[in-house]
Amino acid sequence: MKDASPQTIYLKDYKPFGYVVESVALVFDLHPTATRVTSTIRFAPNPEATDRTFFLDGEELTLISCAIDGQPVTPELSETGLRLDAPDAPFTFEAEVEISPETNTALEGLYMSNGMYCTQCEAEGFRKITYYPDRPDVMAVFDVTIRGPLPVKLSNGNPLEAPEGQARWHDPWPKPAYLFALVSGDLVAHADRFTTRSGREVELNLWVRPGDEGKCAFGMEALKRSMRWDEDVYGREYDLDIFNIVAVDDFNMGAMENKGLNIFNSAAVLASPETSTDANFERIEAIIAHEYFHNWTGNRITCRDWFQLCLKEGLTVFRDSQFTSDMRSAPVKRIGDVIDLRARQFPEDQGPLSHPVRPESFQEINNFYTATVYEKGAEVIGMLKRLVGDAAYAEALDLYFDRHDGQACTIEDWLKVFEDVTGRDLSQFKRWYSQSGTPRLKVDETFENGTYRLTFTQETPPTPDQDEKLPQVLPIAVGLIGPNGHEVLPTTLLEMTEATQSFEFPNMATRPVPSILRGFSAPVVLERETSREERIFLLDHDSDPFNRWEANRALAQSSLLTMITDPNEGPDRSWLTALLGVIRDPALDPAYRALLLNLPSQSELAQALHERGVTPDPDLIWSAVEEHRNARAELWQAQLPALAAETRVDAPFSPDAEQAGKRALGAAVLAMQSRFDGGTAARAVYASADNMTLQLSALTCLITAGVAEDALAAFEDQWRHDRLVMDKWFGVQIAYAPPQHAPERAAELTEHPGFDWKNPNRFRAVFGALVANHAAFHRGDGASYDLLADWLIRLDAKNPQTAARMCSAFQTWRRYDSQRQEKIRAAMERIAATDGLSRDVTEMVTRLLG
Ligand code: PHE
Ligand code: ZN
């Protein structure tokens, strides 16, 4: 399908384009299989470039005609674009091309989803719409005319007058082509208004297919809160007369920040209490905020090239996490983010796909929308803020917006504003952008003559892409606690820059207990031999909510590891007793208590064993976790009814943090009860549930208890007409299935009439759940590996981007025993040998096979 030997693109080869674009006018005549796109583009020589090669990117386009300054020309055409001899003076380029949105299953460029036209251009999709210098450093003002049969016609910017049956849009803000968007469909709007703090009236619309009107209110409220928050916290106002959001059912990612016209995966915006869980509401709020915040961090200031992706993504993730912390509970958000970082970014950074936050080469940029670029990228910004302090951070951001508005920037530009504001030299800090891998931090301590000393040693193991690692700047937040549980040193930021470095704390009456890396102040693996007693002490006394949770996490992990490695061992009862005391504390936020009940994932346990030189056995891990859960439920049995009563919500449903926290704790309690009551309590909750959070948590309890047949059938009956809810139905059956049935059940579900595998949400519902079910995915007979490989091969022919993203399921393969490794290798080699495999998947399996 694509080139057999894909090219590698390097950061060091960056060159500006030979021409600047002064303006772009596009006319779309929409048709499912023969859309005509006419472009009129004003080019002028770029004084900053030396190379005047005039090459316009273009893929899968049929060129109808082409002219320069009104004179027809015959360009040189290739699979990737068009070349012409262009004047060394300003000129007008015109082209007409034909494209076929209906047959575009890759969901990149202009495509159709449930009868509506929509676009996805990031990163390099605009070249599937027309010939253009499709690179983020070429910014231009766009004027768009849309003609077509469907009533709603949207593009970026503000609407202009247009004849009947047409729409015209003008976007006054110069932008790269990846922020272009067009939507046309039979849509209805949930409309609202927002007045910016300087008095600009903004029309807000959330466009959905008829029938989904009832799922818009929450997203709209989240949008207005985001707009206000960005004014209050970052001083950033919205800059157009209208802001449109469109919900689309077929979408590769969560959402896209196109200027003034955000396009969302419907799963990332549509919500109602009956159909969405609390987790869905929280995620939707965060994604709405994320895309809105891109208006300044991404759109007004964009990236010079795709290597700088973290410039917009790391910063925008950081901003959306600040927003969520302000809207909800900051400690709960922080713990959730760290769970996520360890589950997704650490394995990436410690395996064959490891790459720096700012990669230096790629074959397919779509493969670099990763947890490293996004989540580690956000951690890097959090560290920077911790190091310079809140006031300097705010000043640096103001300078960034002032200095770089309207530009396409680099990480160097970003760091320079911090250097200019603080006078600091950030050259060592910059290693966070160029060095891959997760640093490991060891701690030694001494106590002599009233002086307590902490000695840290940092080391980053080599990664496949880089052998040598240099010391990084590590902000280490530390507190010290006296033996009576009182803090003797409140949180203090230590700044580590050397490979080994000591910090002294004089005048201590007694040896303190340290609380290290409070708030997870740096994305590292902390390796410190700590006794169980000390961890229980921290669980009881640490004033830092993150480290209190972390102490419990470590206790859970070590108890589980003991059970895995020695099948005669039971769970650590003295820890469970201490934990129960904390869980029963009514003064503690229920959401936080629910997090204390959350166990390390089985994949995390496998990694921990691997790091201790033990080959993880997924079956043993599974049984140990099961045994632990059964034992815990039994041990706490008598206290569960009182806890359950505490989590009852009597007020009408609201997705706010307070109610959601109660429901989260309630779900954890119900899961424990279902371990010994045969599903009685869960069945009652299921029968009376009036919201999806309760309904789904009861359903998962019934699946785990093996008594869900009736409920699953009833659920399907109730929700068969709701795609988003049916994604849950597909997913939970696999995610909670016992390993001995999960791959077979997944294969069965692919035969279900509702398994529309070309829809990324549905494909991920089944296969994402299978991958997440650790023991099922790694079942010894390799059934899941083979099933996933079959389907990735099939999907790749239609949608390379989503297929490639799912290849990361194999990234931890080298942890496991040689039989499993051989089975995974065979599956990956079978994928690699597929005829016509996309560049996306080719790059992924090549890196994975290493
Ligand atoms: N830029 C989008 C975001 O982070 C993600 C995205 C990337 C969406 C590529 C589609 C395609 O908000
Ligand atoms: Zn983003």
List the total number of helices: 27
CATH architecture grouping of the domain at 9-186: Sandwich
Q: How are the strands of the biggest sheet laid out side by side?
A: 6-5-9-3-2-12-15-14
CATH class assignment of the domain at 9-186: Mainly Beta
Distance between the termini: 23 Å
- DSSP strand content: 15-25%
Indicate the radius of gyration in whole angstroms. 27 Å
CATH superfamily of the domain at 9-186: tricorn interacting facor f3 domain
Cofactor: Zn(2+)
Domain Peptidase M1 membrane alanine aminopeptidase: 218-432
Protein name: Aminopeptidase N
Domain Aminopeptidase N-like N-terminal: 84-179
Task: Provide structural commentary.
There is one protein chain. With 850 residues, this protein is an alpha+beta fold. Among the domains are: 9-186, tricorn interacting facor f3 domain (Immunoglobulin-like); 440-548, Immunoglobulin-like (Sandwich); 720-850, Alpha Horseshoe (Zincin-like fold), CATH 1.25.50.10. Helices cover 40% and strands 21% of the residues. The chain contains 27 helices and 31 strands. The chain has an 8-stranded mixed sheet with strand order 6-5-9-3-2-12-15-14, with no helix packed on it. The longest helix has 21 residues, at 545-565. It is globular and about 85 Å long. It starts with 8 loop residues before the first strand and ends with a helix. The mean pLDDT is 98. Bound molecules: phenylalanine (PHE) and zinc ion. Residues 290, 294, 313, 316 line the site of zinc ion (ZN). Zinc ion binds at residues 290, 294, 313, 316.
